[in-house]
Amino acid sequence: MQIDIDFGKSHVFVFGGTSGINYGIAEAFAQRCAYVSVASRKRENVDAAVTTLAGHRAQVRGMCADVRDFDAVGAAFEDAVSQFGPIDVLISGAAGNFLCEASSMSANGFRAVVDIDLIGSFNVMRQAYPHLRKPGASIVNISAPQATVPMRYQAHAAAAKAGIDQLTRVLALEWGADGIRVNAISPGPIDGTEGFRKLIARSELASAEAAVPLRRFGSTDDIANLALFLASPYASYVSGAVIPCDGGGAIDSVKPALERAGALMTSGT
Ligand code: NAP
Ligand code: COA
């Protein structure tokens, strides 16, 4: 079943949109005739994403920028807007993560994740602001369950994602008068993605999946469908919301698998 919303000629910018969940979101908009811009750090990822997205006969533009570099983020928006005009939909989903106990995490390791996830999200939204369609733009940040559920080995990502949730709510307040909606999606475990591979112990997969209330891991389409809804007129009165898309509290099931992966890593096995 497809969600039939036509995003024809809308400009959709996906920061961190060259792989995984965010790429899935970019693809969903490309399939619905949007003009799609994607940006991330690595040229090879940007080029590959542009090539495959263009296969949907969408107009696509790709830019290299690290979300930690405020000026580079601004330049990426200038470039995209010069091509496709004001931004109707902004997805901010760049993130980095690794499993490590706080007691052995370096200050730079903590900073790297907070810089990418939280400060990067600020940089993306702040630099996009002058280019957002007013009224009408919709921003969707990508959060994570660690924002509200404490998890061992995730001090950096948990702190950063909690910050993203609150940034989402504050900017929804401040930018509502411009007619800009700001929301976030908190994905559960999404099969086949880098975050899933990095964070969940192989040995625990079957029990983790069985413990998801809906009895399956998520797909990138599950997240893209929610992003389509949030970007659409059907969500025109939804702002400041952080919406889980996780099979029904799936984090309770994944927490042991994630913590087992962290324990294995810490013990060097
Ligand atoms: P992913 O495939 O590693 O995607 C991360 C994307 O961000 C890539 O396009 C990457 O491309 C880009 N990126 C990374 N660091 C960047 C930086 N400093 N500046 C600009 N771009 C950067 O990860 P994923 O697992 O799909 O996760 C996507 C989002 O969903 C993240 O926000 C993650 O926290 C969230 N999430 C994932 C899961 C899950 O199960 N996978 C669950 C909950 C939440 P480059 O390497 O080219 O920069
Ligand atoms: N355990 C402990 N510390 C780690 C680590 C790990 N597995 N991986 C990185 N670090 C530390 C490094 O040692 C470094 O600290 P130091 O200078 O004190 O030694 C710090 O983190 C930064 O590492 P670096 O490799 O220089 O950072 P980077 O900016 O190149 O990469 C990461 C950022 C570490 C988040 C990297 O994992 C990344 O780019 N991830 C993107 C993809 C991703 O994680 N996707 C999943 C999203 S949920």
From TrEMBL:
This is SDR family oxidoreductase. Transmembrane segments: none annotated. GO terms for molecular function: 2,4-dienoyl-CoA reductase (NADPH) activity. Belongs to the short-chain dehydrogenases/reductases (SDR) family. InterPro entries: DECR2-like, NAD(P)-bd_dom_sf, SDR_fam. It holds the Pfam family adh_short_C2. PANTHER family: PEROXISOMAL 2,4-DIENOYL-COA REDUCTASE, PEROXISOMAL 2,4-DIENOYL-COA REDUCTASE [(3E)-ENOYL-COA-PRODUCING]. GO terms for biological process: fatty acid catabolic process. Keywords: NADP, Oxidoreductase.
